[in-house]
Specification:
By secondary structure, the chain is mostly helical. The chain is built from 5 helices and no strands. The chain has one domain. It is elongated and about 40 Å long.
């Protein structure tokens, strides 16, 4: 939805809205380079940003779910590790 809103603002020539949406998109995409995040607090901050964007209608339900899953995957231990076993409560 964010990208759709950005395209609509571009068609209308609404410079302020383009700038606002571009900044939100940049915030959302920052730190999503595929490398795991070292700090849990960083992941929590990113989850909060994504939730705020969703709450304000910038992200659709599907976009929110996708971004949330990506952030949560970054901090997940490998599936065969003992940490993964502990995280899920056992076998």
């Amino acid at each position: 939805m964010l990208r759709v809103s950005l395209r609509q603002a571009q068609r209308k020539g609404d410079a302020a809205e383009i700038e606002r949406l571009t900044a939100k998109l940049a915030d959302l995409q920052s730190g999503h380079d595929g490398t795991p995040s070292a700090e849990p607090s960083d992941r929590l901050d990113r989850l909060q940003k994504v939730a705020d964007l969703h709450d304000h209608g910038v992200l659709t339900d599907a976009e929110f779910a996708e971004e949330k899953a990506r952030i949560l995957r970054e901090g997940s231990p490998p599936s065969g590790s003992a940490l993964a076993w502990c995280a899920c409560g056992g076998p």
